[in-house]
Amino acid sequence: MSKIRLLIDEDAMDHRFVTSLRARGVDVTTVGELIRTGLSDEEQLAISTEQQRVFYTFNVGDFYQLHSLYMTENRNHSGIVISTQDYSIGEQMGRVLKLMTTKSAKDMENQLVFLSAYAGE
After folding, report:
1. 78 has a pLDDT exceeding 80
2. Are 105 and 2 contacting, i.e. CB atoms less than 8 angstroms apart?
3. Is the overall model pTM greater than 0.90, yes or no?
4. Which residues form the DUF5615 domain (predicted)?
5. 61: which residues sit within 8 A by CB, 6+ positions away?
6. What is the pLDDT of residues 93-108, one digit of tens each?
7. Which of 1, 93, 104 is nearest to 115 (CA)?
8. How do residues 40-55 score in pLDDT, each as one tens digit?
9. What is the pLDDT of residue 35?
10. Which residues make beta-bridge pairs with 28?
11. pLDDT at residue number 103
């Protein structure tokens, strides 16, 4: 089972969150590290798909709409995880790790999941 690799959107790229995930062995990068900030949502999703990374964002409205458009047009993406800014860094991390124990990268293809569905460990 191939592990989920993450690309963190610029609205969610808290250094503490990224560092905590890396400390637990998660393959994660940010749009900032890729020098891809300021691009459109569709461009960001295309980058994550090219890199076979699941896109992690707080931007529910735009990415829910973009996911629906992709599905309507039979386009593929590597997956989208939508979180809320209400979670602490620890809670986000716990929920991401829980997601990663239940889903593979293959399972995430063309899926949009809400992090709220995954209680942390």
Report:
1. yes
2. yes
3. yes
4. 5-116
5. none
6. 999 999 999 999 999 9
7. 93
8. 999 999 999 999 999 9
9. 86
10. 6
11. 96
Radius of gyration of the chain (CA): 13
Query: Tokens in use for 87?
Result: 């979670």
Contact in structure between 76 and 109 (CB atoms under 8 Å): yes
Tell me how many domains the chain contains. 1
Contact of 70 with 77, CB cutoff 8 Å? yes
| Cross-strand partners of 112 | 80
Residue numbers of the domain that contains 13: 6-117
Residue 1 lies in a domain: no
Which residues contact residue 10 at a Cβ distance below 8 angstroms, ignoring those fewer than 6 apart? 30, 31, 32, 37, 38
Mean pLDDT, range 78-92, rounded to an integer: 94
Q: What are phi and psi of 39, to 5 degrees?
A: -80, 165
Q: Let me know if residue 23 belongs to a domain.
A: yes
Residue type, 114: F
